[in-house]
Each structure stands twice: as structure tokens, then as C-alpha cells.
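fyi for ur records
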Amino acid sequence: MEAKCDFMVNRAILIEMGFKPSQAARMIKESKTYLARVEGIDFYNNRQVGVVPSRVIERLFHIQVAE
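which gave:
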């Protein structure tokens, strides 16, 4: 089985992919909530964190994030 390397996604990357700025911000916010509540990573409770792993975006929104 091939291991996939995660990379971090921010709002600007989602905007480049064609999402509106408000959609991109909401996707990051929902991803941070998922990471904090479901996976228990308290680091993402911080308002200033603006990046999330690509695997979370792919899991929650069913889109492929290109590097």
C-alpha cells in the first residue's frame, strides 16, 4: 500500500481552486472544528491557525486537493 503524504491547505489555495473567499474560509473553519472535536487536536481551537491538512478537506468535502 502506498503512503500518501499530507500537505497543508489554506484559504488562498482553496480560492485558487475556484472557491469564493467566503466558501474557502468556511471550509477551513469547518475543518478546524472537525480536527478539534472529532480527532481531539486542541491546536486547531486557536483562531489564528489558518491551515489544515489536505486529508481533512478531502474527507469532509469530497474534493481532490492538488499540490
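Residues 21-37 form the longest helix (17 residues). thats all i got for now
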